[in-house]
Structures are given as C-alpha cells and as structure tokens.
Amino acid sequence: MNVKDFILRLILTLISLLPIYTMTQKLHIKTWGCQMNEYDSSKMADLLNSTHGFELTENAEEADVLLLNTCSIREKAQEKVFHQLGRWKNFKKNKPNLVIGVGGCVASQEGEHIRHRAPFVDIVFGPQTLHRLPEMINRIRGDRTAPIVDISFPEIEKFDRLPEPRAEGPTAFVSIMEGCNKYCSFCVVPYTRGEEVSRPVDDILFEIAQLAAQGVREVNLLGQNVNAYRGETFDGEICSFAELLRLVAAIDGIDRLRFTTSHPIEFTDDIIEVYRDTPELVSFLHLPIQSGSDRVLTMMKRNHTALEYKAIIRKLRAVRPDIQISSDFIVGFPGETEADFEQTMKVIEQVNFDMSFSFVYSARPGTPASDLPDDVSEDEKKERLYRLQQRINNQAMQFSRAMLGTEQRILVEGPSKKDIMELTGRTETNRIVNFQGSPDMIGKFVDVKITDVYTNSLRGDVVRTEEEMGLRIVESPQSVIERTRKEDELGVGKFVVNL
C-alpha cells in the first residue's frame, strides 16, 4: 500500500468513528441496594463523564451504555438481575453497538455465570473494579467479540483512579473503606466486596475539603463497617475511626457529620467520646443489632450479646440524651423460635428504636447460614415482620409527635419531592421536613417550627434564617463563580480556596 492509499484509508476510518466521539454519548445506570452502591454509581457517572463525555439519561432506550449496579442481599437477587437484562436485550437488537455492563455484588458473586445466561452482556465488573470501566468500554468497542469479566479485588486502587468529587447539593457521601472481615453467617459482603480495606486519611480529608469548597456542609462517611476503619496517615501512623471523625469535623465548612454502617463489637468508648465532644456529629446513629436473642446472635456469628449492645446505647445516651437510634433486623433466621422473637421485641422496646431496615430471612448462596435448615415458615416470618415493623413505626410516630411545636434546625437540600414549590431538608435526627421558603435558602440552615406530623415526614414554618442565626454566610458555588468572574474582569482579585 502506498502512502496516498494509507492516508486515504486513515481518513475514512476517522470519519467512520466521528459520530461516536463527536455526538454526545448517553449513559444509563440502574442501581439497586445500599448507599454504597448509590455512591459507586455516582462515581461511575463522574468517571465516564470525565473520560468519554457521557451524559446521564433516565431513558434506557436512548443510552449508548447501560450499566446495572446490583445488590445480592435479598432473596432472588440473581433472578431480578436476569429479568432486567432480558428487557435490555431487546434494545441491543435495535442498537448493535450498545454496551451492556453488570456490576455490583451480584456481578462479583456470579462472575462468568452472568455471561453464560446472558451472552449479550459485554462487561461484568465487581465493586472494586468500577474504576476500570473506561478501559473496558474502549476494549469492547475495539473488539465486539471479546467480552470482559473482571471481579478482582485490587484493594485501594479503586479510589486512586476516580475523578475529583463533584458536589450535587449541600450533602455528600464519602467512602472511607471497603469490605468487611466479620463474616456474619448470613452475610455475603465479605465474599462480594472483599475484606476490610481503609483509605488513607489524607485522601479522605482532601476529598472532603474539595467538597466543602463546593458548598457541601454535611458529609456522610460510608463503609460496610466504618468503625473498623484503620487508615494510614502521611507519615505511616494508623488513624482510628474516632480520630478520623475529629479530623473531618475540624474541616472548615463541614457543619454536620454522619456515618453508616457500624458494628457493635467495634463501637468503642473513644467513638462515644467523640459524640460527647463534637457538636458536628449528629444525634442519629444506625447501629444494627439484627436480633434481640443471644441464641440467634450466636448462630448469626455476631460476636456480641443483646446486653452488650444495650450497654453501648446506655453510654451514648449518657453523653447525648437526644440521640435517635436505628437498626437492621432479620426476622425468621433458621431456628428462631417465638421466644427468640419476643426477645427481639423486648430489645426494641428497651432501646426505643426510631426506625429500622427489617427483612424476613432469606438464605444467601455460599454463606454458612445457607447450610442451616430454614425451618421458620414463610407465614410465621411475615407475621413476625409485621409485628416488628408496627412496633417501630409506633415508636417513630411518638418521636415525631414529640417534635410538634418545637424548633428544629434544618439543612435545606432543595425542592421538595412532593411539591416543587416547597423546600425540603433534614433535622439532625434524620427527619425529613417540608416547608415554604425561597430558593436562596438551599444549601443553608434554617430553623423551622414543626406544625404537622405525617408518617414519613414533618411540616413546618421557617422562623429563623441562617443570616438571622448569626452563622457564617455561605455563598453558593454559582455565586462564587459569578463573583470571581466579575473580580477578574475588574482586576480586583481572585477567590482562593486553601485545601
């Protein structure tokens, strides 16, 4: 081939690829499961936007790449995945270049089996390999005959290769660790997300400082078991979770701090001392107990008793009397008797839980509990679950009614989902509050007097704005951009954020 023919062929090849790289590409992500999955999905979107210019779409039919971020906690999780993939298969018939990927915990658990049952799937990736998505998509587009399965556990590499965080409001999630070493007999997390790996302290603090500079005021630290956090500092020292909480609370601009999820056996006294000393740490804690029966807790391999759990709550309430507690419960675990269940109901009353995530037991393949005889009937499980949820709902309503007439400090998150003409935010104790207000309140704190109580939310009237509280006045990111642009034009100066 002479040089002229080579150049002509190269030009024709580039022209054929032009639509792919000049037209805006669409990405659709469907997410099931926990807040960690929500966090991972947001990182996938940010990553593919930075590398390929993908824009998110709610319409799966118009997408160029479809990603399913899965959860394996509940029964029939696998079948739910394949039903969804069956719907997406039809899209590929009309759009042969469509890339379909399956990620999350089901992908990690099933691996190659997903490709066997759904050969039209191009990419199978685990929670620890989502950072490799840009390369995987490029490889698939380069060779349609070579599907990719990557469900390895490359430890902290995932965090090293993600784009800088982008704030999407005054609240943000920040992952501080991955995996779990506890190996509860019912749980798949150690098998799907790997063992505990903590991010370096400086990486976490830098990410949060970046978010604070963009207007974030509340941070929720994420991990399968955050109080197991043991991250390295820049000089090789090990930082505990309690120390990390104090460091995050000290970041300028962070006014509220939450975390989820934690485990009772590592809820140490130094964490309770942070609740005593640190007003930024909110008066709300999600601390799963799963069952109130010591016999069932032993079979679950939780490694603590109901009494030890209650001792933690007692210490917490000694330093934070107003703290609200939520939990996870599994009803109908193999061998659970009516007497065991009554022990759970007793603990619910004694602790006075404000809310819960509660489910009937379903065996997860590969876990030790899946070898136990599932001897509690479905009817018994459902009846116990109903009683448990009714008890907690009644307790939650009592808490809500006690707030009637009180003033609650709300971080305004944005327009209400129920009425876009109203605003919404959360109390420190995680109650949703809707109220009338102006758009300039978004991203700021307001004091709201509670006037109405509903099943899942509260309603009230603004009695005090942030300016009237005497708190620092916060500029929105957009107002900062506009102001600095004008200052640059006038030669006045520049707005600098020290990270």
The CATH topology of the largest domain corresponds to pyruvate-formate lyase- activating enzyme
Strand pairing plus helix content: what structural class?
alpha/beta
Strand content: 15-25%
- Any idea of the CATH class of the largest domain? Alpha Beta
Strand line-up across the major sheet:
2-1-3-4-5-6
Number of domains: 3
Would you report the number of β strands?
21
Report the total helices.
Answer: 17
How confident overall, as mean pLDDT?
89
Helix content: 25-40%
* Architecture per CATH nomenclature, i.e. the level-2 architecture of the largest domain: Alpha-Beta Horseshoe
CATH superfamily of the largest domain: tm_1862 like domain
Keywords: 4Fe-4S, Cytoplasm, Iron, Iron-sulfur, Membrane, Metal-binding, S-adenosyl-L-methionine, Transferase, Transmembrane, Transmembrane helix, tRNA processing
GO cellular component, one term: cytosol
Cofactor: [4Fe-4S] cluster
Enzyme class: transferase
Describe the structure.
With 499 residues, the chain is of the alpha/beta class. It has 3 domains: 26-150, 3-Layer(aba) Sandwich (Rossmann fold), CATH 3.40.50.12160; 159-400, pyruvate-formate lyase- activating enzyme; 404-468, Beta Barrel (OB fold (Dihydrolipoamide Acetyltransferase, E2P)). It is 39% helix and 20% strand. The protein is built from 17 helices and 21 strands. It has helices spanning 3-22, 35-52, 77-94, 104-110, 112-117, 133-142, 157-160, 189-192, 201-213, 241-249, 269-277, 294-299, 306-319, 338-351, 378-402, 466-469, 477-490; strands spanning 26-31, 55-56, 65-70, 99-103, 123-125, 148-150, 171-175, 177-178, 197-198, 218-222, 230-232, 238-240, 256-260, 284-286, 324-331, 355-360, 407-415, 423-426, 432-435, 445-453, 458-464. A 6-stranded parallel β-sheet has the order 2-1-3-4-5-6, with helices on both faces. Strands 17-18-19-21-20 form a 5-stranded mixed β-barrel. β1, α2 and β2 (55-56) form a beta-alpha-beta unit. α11 (269-277) runs parallel beside α13 (306-319). The longest helix has 25 residues, at 378-402.
